[in-house]
Amino acid sequence: MKKSYFMGIDTGTYESKGIIIDNELNVIATHTAAHGMENPKPNYFEHDADKVWWHDFCLISNALLEKTGLDNGDIISVGASALGADCLPVDENCNPLRKAILYGIDARATQEMKYLTEYFGEEQIKTWFGRPLCSSDVMPKILWIKNNEPDIYAKTYKFLTGSSFITAKLTGNYTVDRFLGLASFNPLYHSDGTPNPETCKPICRPNQLADVMSTIDIAGYVTEKAAQETGLKAGTPVIVGTDDAGAEAISTGVLQPGDMMLMFGSSLYMILCTDKLVDDDRIWREEFIIPNTFDISAGTNAAGTLTRWYRDNIFPECLEIEKQRGVNAYTEMMKGIEQIPAGSDGLITLPYFAGERTPINDPLAKGVLFGLKLSHTKQHMYRSALEAVGYSIAQHFKIFQEHSVAVNKIMAVGGGTKNPQWMQMISDITGETIHTASITIGASFGDAMMAAMGIHYFDSFEELSSVIKSGNTYTPNVKNHKVYQHYLGIFEELYTSTKALMHKL
Question: Which UniProt keywords apply (predicted)?
Answer without folding.
Answer: Kinase, Transferase
